[in-house]
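task queued by scheduler; priority normal; single chain, no ligands, no partner chains; default sampling; output format set to structure tokens
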Amino acid sequence: MCKHVLNAQVAIRSHCCKKWFDCAECHAEKEDHPLMKKAEMIFACKKCKKVFRKDGTDWDESDEYCPYCDNHFVIDALTPKAELRVEMEDPRIDNRALKDERVAGEGEKILFSLHDQQASKLG
């Protein structure tokens, strides 16, 4: 699973060390040598698990698909975005983090409050 490209559809075999990687950044993190670039690329489809070769010098639109299962592997890469979120339990199981808007807070004044002196004057 690649942490750089979230929707990687194929694994790529590097020519330099003969290992499989999801992207060039994964190769740079795990290996101590630069990635050798060649025109011929070897892919492994993550959908059908079959290996195939593609020539980068003669690339057309039909080369964007796996020749075995027609999985479209040349797609816009989704990279992870930094964001802050509040994670909590499922509210159906533990609802302590939810605020009930129907319950009045301590500092709020209500017209018919038992502690209010004006409530006895209303009748």
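post-processing summary
- The CA atoms of residues 54 and 60 lie 10 Å apart.
- Residues 1-80 form one domain.
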